Recover the amino acids of this structure.
């Protein structure tokens, strides 16, 4: 089939691709290829050093970003012939630097790195790549080296405060470079740069329907896995389940296995839910986790212990199932945001501790024995793929749930302590986590008397020494009659939290409220009376990616109904509402 035709062949893949992405190092190139396909143009990834003659068919070439410096020994390069015959080339990030370097420009270490958001000043250049994009606009950067001097025949057309040459162009030769990442959602109008390249510069025709991505992913899985088998640690969440289902479809159920580890820190019904998935075995490790956590109250220590126990269980499974033998490769549900360095912060770091740092897993990674079928997709796209695979809405609409489970929603205290009154309300001496910049801080909580989001936002930022503001929903027992009790993570307290959480999940599902919020943690805090020592905090939030979040109100009737059911749970003295945005308060309480 010709690259320019509009039909899709029965196998679902137009051949040859109109756009070739040269892989200069890892994570970016797959997202770049996918973004071009999202524009309706079929693109494929090739090794960067492929001879120019083997990709002469392509209407355009993208040189991807990558983590190297052009001066590193053995860093990826491209056949310079690709620049010689008028084939359009767009270099992205490292790709721009490599283009500049190979064509006689200069690449130098930047004075400081530029990671994350920046503002691009783009000249009003009359060339097709930047058409309609002149002016000042947000972009996403991830680099240290910069182009110090452009090659002859090029001009620098864009800059940021840190990077003097952030976009280059030689329009007569159809050669372009950008230091930023147009493929990342944080780059404003990022798709317009790619669309200009694909349609205006390369003259491509639409030949691809993004809904055909499932056969493509399946083909990639088959190429990566070869005749080996795939093993997953699944969490019951959307990402790992979709990745697992894709592998099962691509390879057949007999070649894909999964284990779900029951840590004893799961929500009600969760293990049963995972156990119903075909091909998933359950590893029960409740006693191991709860034993290791007995008597521990410090939040960081709890997280650390859970991480360590997870590593032990994973190693045990890898050993006992002989997964290190070469017939096996590890499947992971890594999604795109997990791989963006600046998107990492505390969350990604912690996730890595639990799932990616096991020595056995690292060995598999080092030997290239990992398949990550959804690693170039964002969460909403993973959900769409799941729908195409026919996975249940119940699974796909699940909210994110943290790896350490209920442990980080069940707060502990190393001492009995009284609630203190303060000019703005009451200081509740339980330590909850907040976020300032990239670091996590622990501080007490301010309780005010009304569900007033505006006042709470103001106080969370102005009252010293607190990072979170809550209000009682139903002041059945006055706060002044409650205190904080010394306690740790016990089966009894976890059961209490599990019951309250199950009530919230059920009622929010029945009322449809769960579809209006991004996540709804339910937290147990050791605040109450001798007869009922704990309280529940409701934390419905809206967010895009979990990096920032807003506390959202909920319908009064639903809130009252939730509250009266939760107060029936044995040992619960009160129900509070978390009114804090992130920052300063994280979504989770630990
Ligand atoms: P925070 O509490 O940092 O949470 O505002 C942001 C998002 O990350 C989730 N989260 C975790 N997920 N392991 C996970 O798998 C963790 O240790 C962890 N900590 C927080 C949290 O649920 C929210 O969606």
């Amino acid at each position: 089939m010709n690259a320019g035709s509009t039909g899709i062949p029965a196998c679902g893949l137009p051949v040859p691709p109109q756009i070739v992405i040269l892989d200069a190092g890892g994570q970016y190139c797959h997202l770049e290829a996918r973004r071009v396909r999202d524009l309706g143009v079929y693109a494929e990834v090739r090794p960067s050093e492929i001879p120019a003659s083997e990709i002469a068919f392509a209407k355009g070439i993208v040189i991807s970003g990558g983590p190297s410096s052009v001066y590193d020994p053995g860093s990826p390069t491209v056949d310079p012939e690709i620049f010689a015959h008028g084939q359009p080339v767009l270099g992205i990030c490292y790709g721009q630097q490599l283009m500049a370097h190979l064509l006689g420009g200069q690449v130098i270490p930047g004075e400081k790195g530029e990671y994350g958001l920046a503002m691009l000043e783009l000249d009003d250049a009359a060339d097709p790549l930047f058409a309609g994009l002149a002016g000042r606009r947000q972009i996403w950067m991830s680099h240290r080296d910069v182009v110090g001097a452009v090659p002859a025949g090029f001009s620098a057309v864009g800059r940021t405060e840190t990077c003097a040459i952030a976009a280059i162009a030689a329009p007569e030769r159809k050669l372009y470079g950008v230091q930023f990442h147009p493929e990342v959602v944080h780059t404003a109008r990022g798709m317009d740069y790619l669309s200009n390249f694909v349609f205006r510069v390369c003259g491509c025709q639409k030949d691809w329907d993004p809904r055909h991505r499932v056969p493509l992913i399946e083909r990639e899985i088959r190429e990566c896995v070869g005749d080996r088998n795939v093993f997953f640690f699944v969490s019951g969440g959307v990402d790992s389940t979709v990745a697992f289902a894709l592998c099962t479809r691509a390879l057949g159920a007999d070649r894909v296995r999964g284990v779900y580890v029951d840590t004893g820190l799961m929500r009600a019904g969760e293990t049963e839910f995972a156990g119903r998935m075909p091909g998933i075995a359950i590893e029960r490790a409740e006693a191991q986790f709860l034993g290791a956590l007995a008597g521990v109250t410090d939040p960081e220590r709890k997280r650390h212990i859970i991480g360590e126990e997870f590593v032990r269980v994973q190693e045990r499974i890898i050993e006992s199932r002989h997964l290190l033998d070469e017939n096996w490769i590890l499947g992971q549900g890594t999604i795109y945001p997990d791989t963006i360095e600046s998107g990492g912060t505390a969350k990604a770091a912690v996730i890595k501790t639990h799932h990616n740092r096991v020595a056995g897993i690292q060995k598999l990674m080092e030997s290239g024995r990992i398949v990550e079928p959804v690693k170039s997709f964002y969460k909403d796209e993973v959900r769409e793929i799941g729908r195409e695979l026919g996975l249940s809405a119940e699974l796909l609409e699940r909210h994110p749930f943290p790896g350490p489970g209920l442990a980080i929603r069940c707060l502990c205290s190393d001492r009995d302590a009284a609630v203190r009154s303060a000019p703005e309300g009451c200081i509740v001496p339980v330590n909850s986590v907040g976020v300032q910049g990239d670091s996590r801080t622990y501080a007490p909580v301010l309780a005010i008397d009304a569900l007033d989001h505006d006042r709470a936002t103001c106080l969370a930022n102005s009252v010293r020494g607190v990072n979170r503001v809550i209000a009682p929903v139903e002041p059945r027992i006055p706060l002044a009659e409650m205190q904080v009790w010394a306690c740790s993570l016990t089966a009894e307290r976890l059961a209490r939290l599990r019951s309250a959480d199950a009530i919230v999940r059920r009622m929010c599902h029945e009322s449809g409220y769960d579809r209006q919020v991004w996540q709804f943690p339910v937290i147990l805090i050791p605040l109450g009376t001798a007869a009922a020592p704990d309280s529940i905090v409701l934390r419905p939030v809206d967010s895009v990616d979990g990096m920032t979040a807003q506390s959202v109100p909920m319908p009064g009737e639903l809130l009252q109904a939730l509250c009266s059911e939760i107060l029936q749970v044995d040992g619960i003295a009160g129900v509070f509402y978390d009114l804090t945005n992130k920052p300063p308060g994280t979504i989770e309480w630990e």
Remarks:
- The CA atoms of residues 500 and 566 lie 6 Å apart.
- Confidence is low (pLDDT under 50) at residues 1-12, 341-355.
- The pocket of xanthosine-5'-monophosphate is lined by residues 346-347, 350-351, 400, 402-404, 519, 546, 582, 586-588 (CB under 6 Å).
